[in-house]
Amino acid sequence: MGLEVDPAFVQAAEHRPKPTISDAGEIPLIDLSPLLHHPIPSDPSDPSIPDEISSLIAAIGAACLDWGFFQVVNHGVDLKLLERVQAVAREFFALPAEEKRRVKRDEVNALGYYDTEHTKNVRDWKEVFDLVVREYESDDGSFRLRNQWPDHPPAMREACEEYIASVEKLAYKLVELIALSLNLPAKRLNGYFRDSSCFFRINHYNPCPSPDLVLGVGRHKDSGALTVLAQDEVGGLDVKRKSDGEWVRVKPIPNSYIINVGDIIQVWSNDKYESVEHRASVNTEKERFSIPFFFSPTFSTNVKPLEELVSDDKNPARYQEYNWGHYFSSRLSSNFKKLDKDNLQISHFKKAL
Ligand code: OGA
Ligand code: NI
């Protein structure tokens, strides 16, 4: 990707609201160290839950309710694992474009490398490397998730796989704490993630001469259940504050993860925990890397509000059931093919009440 701003970028950028960023009111910072001393309780009404853990569950519930986003520290993921992924990412994205494109995604296989140029995606200023934990092929062969590993750097595969295994454990803990915060048994949601369709991405944002005209990633919501994102020290992630709709820049905190509720938790919780819009701004001088892990259920899962959380009279289900595999593949392929067409959204499954 060159450093000239393509006029098409500018044209697309005109449809965006001008960035306004508020430094006041940051997303909640949550210390997970109580989990180093206590197991996650299985039953939310167990009277023997230590205070430290009750407070943690309450803090997570409040963060999901008020922000849909929070940052965690003392999360149990070894920093060395992330540093190795950052090192291979740096090496990979520094390769010549032809080399990177040897592992590029295409219409059938959604995984591998892509940049905004060859997908003709004029909306975002980024390049990406995507992979999954479990490969997948649709019955009719029209959609495939097959990992493509580059020859260079040779350590890329091992670094990513070891990192993902550790982050997945963190994601399970967070999903259990979120379940408890909804007054559900800790493991209520775990079954959906067996053979899960977790998706791992490395975003690389080159420096951009006109950061006010383009965004690294335009405003969007994450469609999975939960995102666990590592950002580097450059910063650029903006979150839409629920209380007033202002964009708030998330301050980089060393060795922390940014967690956000995705659309599936919004549907499961029947809109109690909303999936919140966010975007990534770019920097004039510095390149930036961000590494999201999208924790998502098995493709065969039919997503709908959890029965325990709805009642016909007081809180009727607000969504019709939808199939996650169908939803995911349709979004991925429409992203690739026709960029101005509207993606499938959870709002399409909203019931008229
Ligand atoms: C994403 C995303 C934000 C960032 O990849 O879904 O929101 O900071 N990235 O790169
Ligand atoms: Ni996102």
Automatic annotation (TrEMBL):
<keyword id="KW-0479">Metal-binding</keyword>
<dbReference type="InterPro" id="IPR027443">
    <property type="entry name" value="IPNS-like_sf"/>
</dbReference>
<dbReference type="GO" id="GO:0016491">
    <property type="term" value="F:oxidoreductase activity"/>
</dbReference>
<dbReference type="GO" id="GO:0046872">
    <property type="term" value="F:metal ion binding"/>
</dbReference>
<protein>
    <recommendedName>
        <fullName>Fe2OG dioxygenase domain-containing protein</fullName>
    </recommendedName>
</protein>
<dbReference type="Pfam" id="PF03171">
    <property type="entry name" value="2OG-FeII_Oxy"/>
</dbReference>
<feature type="domain" description="Fe2OG dioxygenase">
    <location>
        <begin position="194"/>
        <end position="297"/>
    </location>
</feature>
<dbReference type="Pfam" id="PF14226">
    <property type="entry name" value="DIOX_N"/>
</dbReference>
<dbReference type="InterPro" id="IPR005123">
    <property type="entry name" value="Oxoglu/Fe-dep_dioxygenase_dom"/>
</dbReference>
<comment type="similarity">
    <text>Belongs to the iron/ascorbate-dependent oxidoreductase family.</text>
</comment>
<dbReference type="InterPro" id="IPR044861">
    <property type="entry name" value="IPNS-like_FE2OG_OXY"/>
</dbReference>
<keyword id="KW-0560">Oxidoreductase</keyword>
<dbReference type="InterPro" id="IPR050295">
    <property type="entry name" value="Plant_2OG-oxidoreductases"/>
</dbReference>
<dbReference type="InterPro" id="IPR026992">
    <property type="entry name" value="DIOX_N"/>
</dbReference>
<keyword id="KW-0408">Iron</keyword>
